């Protein structure tokens, strides 16, 4: 058994090599946000017999929706792909600095130095830091803010003066270059089951998505069932993962090795399709 979706300190996760060794995984996909650099370090796990699947979770934008798409065995050497990831990481860094400066101007005690241990800084980290700092407590109490989620709602959400937007990469500008087996991650978190199913269909028709992560700690049983049915209808692979960011999330939502084999079959299929396309163009 193993885990198909896991984040390391190269992005916003906390999972170290040691944590994975302790987990007794048979395989693990290293799937950081918009960054493929962790693989060089984590592939060392193969020395002790754990299969390490290179992966990446791509942030993108499609039909007006923010989506996360996993690529298993991506084309890490494709320059267009890496440039698209680098451009997005840059925009995210600029957004974070802007966000922190606005919060400071608003009177909160927070600094970029507070986040050195992470590869990327997400809203949740900013909110946690502000809420947990003693120096901010008095003010937050006065505003009746007690949790990070309340802080996000009042200060870091669309429409609030300290909100800063982040330009996402259009899916069609990054996915065709990513290669690998593309799987839509936790759709229930980003789109509405039923109403937005056409988006999943278009991902399959236009962008060659091969699977849906239907099993997720982020899905209710009803949402899982909905996407299981949609995956069957579209001929897509159904995967389960725990989108692991923290150590306590390590043991749940595992997959048997047969799922890795299913994904490898898809990889062969996708690569054949690319070869055939080249041939078709050459013979035309
Ligand atoms: Zn994730």
Instruction: Tell me the CATH architecture of the largest domain.
Output: Alpha-Beta Barrel
**Cα gyration radius (Å):** 20 Å
Count of the domains: 2
Helix/sheet category = alpha/beta
**DSSP strand (E) fraction?**
15-25%
Ions, cofactors and other ligands present here are: zinc ion
CA-based shape: globular
Count of helical stretches: 11
Structure in words:
- With 284 residues, the chain is of the alpha/beta class.
- The protein folds into two domains: 178 residues, TIM Barrel, CATH 3.20.20; 68 residues, no CATH class.
- Helix 10 links the parallel strand 7 and strand 8.
- It is globular and about 65 Å long.
- The model has no long low-confidence stretch (mean pLDDT 94).
Q: Which key phrases capture this entry?
A:
284 residues; 2 domains; 46% helix; binds zinc ion; 11 helices; TIM Barrel; globular; 8-stranded mixed beta sheet; alpha/beta
Write a concise synopsis of the structure shown.
With 284 residues, this protein is an alpha/beta fold.
